[in-house]
């Protein structure tokens, strides 16, 4: 019979050689003879653990400690196995038993430290590793793990010392070298970290090291090198999802969105639960204008982490951008149900309610966002604007002052919101410059085009109009005839649309009005700029300025050699990438030029084009909700333009003109309720306020016939509403303000031939309104004059207007071709 000791030695030899099958057979022979043999039982347990049979391993280790309760190695090994199973409290108990049996047992201290580290008990882990190293200073695992804990505590110098000690104890230790490189990177020592990563890679190419190196290079803006590192990781492991994800991040930073999306798709194929990849893919798709796909990506992210608010918030942003405001509201509300203190989601919810025309909901949501982030200039400016839309004047003076203070303090506020405030031209310029600064900084301009973009100098000048409003919109109603009348012998006219196709007759008309009508909604800003450049546009005319949904980033890429701010925004864009602004002498007197970054191109008459209107048949007064005989003061301006000061004037006029009514546009029900309350507080019957619902343009135009006098507003005038009223023969009483936005109506009434309707002061405005209401003959003469001059007044002479504008475009083009910089000029 072979002695047990010999069988055990043969088993241990087989174990060392890796012949685990032989080793197990021999250990079992030992146990058949001696069931309490600790060495055979323990080693068999170790093999079982190596092979993943943790239940069998635990059973065998427990036999060891049952057979020899005072055997520290048995308790330590059992503790290590329990730790492997995630049973950390039981593991701690076994390691402590081992230490109690042998206080100088370094391996037990090491394993106890590992459990504490997993539990996040860093101080206890630190103590255990230090104990292990006191007992056995040459224990590299303890040095490495000590470094990990110190690094977690932000003690980088001590962590680095621990890693370097581990590397000396075990030369070629990749784990310690890798940890040291990560610590150097976290410490901000990028140069040394890069050297460390590259040293490791020289020893042994490793996918994790390549990914970390790529991240380090990305931090430094070395994007091509970062991409090469991630590609190297994928060469080693084509199924490495994290490397694909990081490739996507770099490609997205480079603006290579199609490639980035493909990388994110690959990472999701490899790891379907990769929420970060789904999120980033959604962002890239949204940036490209592929909003449906973006929403699907965010929905996938939300399913991956249903208890997380972020994916629902992102989904809402995509839905809102795609015009699905109601669905966006639901997404933001889901995000807030999961995270009630989510300020960003409240802000976005406010945006969604705004798009739905629900200022009450918008005000509440922005207010909540501001409560959570009191210094949020975006939330405050949106809140204030929605209060103005709702005619909520409970804190009007304070809101105005705070908004102006934010601008003066350097906060980034949407420039549009300043138009209806007391902000002067200098403040509007500062606000606009601050608004466009991120676009100018982030967008890489396209290379400058050659001096002459096409071979033949006799070819037509190519002009492109850029807008989101090529549908049923005020801008379209003003400019449709302009687009149609352009001289096709001199100009080739492009329309670049990024707004919705509402299927209206106006949309179809505009599609026919251009030589080429290009829908750029699916294109990213960079792609849209590339498309405009590929079309060799000579003069790009932006019709949005700083209004909602503007594509400032497209303009910042400088797709055209000449770029013009026109019609949509009554103020400067504050951008070096805009060359000219189309104005007239009334809206921008020459002394205003220092407050515009664009050079003035001054047209004769009014800067505003006015297409021929078509009105519907006249309805009886009663169908408009108006009394049969009352004098009708009218203001169809947007409600945000109505201020307490002007409302006071209007209500005093109602008191002094018996039986008169004030006819206003009902843009939202909250404004109607608030204005009725304000009237009652001023001692006027709220029923003397009549609200006109928003109607199709033809119906809206004809109802002007029932009004007697249009009352304008300041600081922001009537714009299209003034032209509509004058075209309908309704006199418009206005004051000229200090800025472009406050002088548009003055320009329009002058070009219509009734400049006596520009009051020099508010007192004169009120008195003139009263005088006109009391002298029907004078009002009738004004009406008749407007009716007679409709065909001849400069305001409605589109043939002359188009000729003047084309002369301006030609002069811009001549200057550029001659290599001359943009300069102000006037068309006489």
Describe the protein.
Among the domains are: 461-603, Rossmann fold; 621-796, 3-Layer(aba) Sandwich (Rossmann fold). 57% of the residues lie in helices and 7% in strands. It contains 37 helices and 14 strands. The strands form two sheets. Strands 3-2-1-4-5-6-7-14 form an eight-stranded parallel beta sheet, with helices on one face. Strands 10-9-8-11-12-13 form a six-stranded parallel beta sheet, sandwiched between helices. Strand 8 (632-635), helix 30 (644-656) and strand 9 (661-666) form a beta-alpha-beta unit. The termini are far apart. 49% of the residues are buried. The mean pLDDT is 92.
- Structural class of the helices, strands and pairings? alpha/beta
Name of the CATH first level of the domain at 621-796: Alpha Beta
Query: Segments where pLDDT lies below 50 for 5+ residues?
Result: none
The CATH superfamily title of the domain at 621-796: Glycogen Phosphorylase B
Task: Let me know the average pLDDT.
Answer: 92
**Helix amount, in percent?**
55-70%
Q: Let me know the number of strands.
A: 14
Distance between the termini: 123 Å
CATH topology of the domain at 621-796: Rossmann fold
The amount of beta strand, in percent, is 5-15%
CATH architecture of the domain at 621-796: 3-Layer(aba) Sandwich
Provide the gyration radius in Å: 38 Å
| Count of runs of 4 or more consecutive helical residues | 37
Shape, per Cα inertia axes: elongated
What does the main sheet amount to? 8 strands, parallel
Strand order of the largest sheet: 3-2-1-4-5-6-7-14
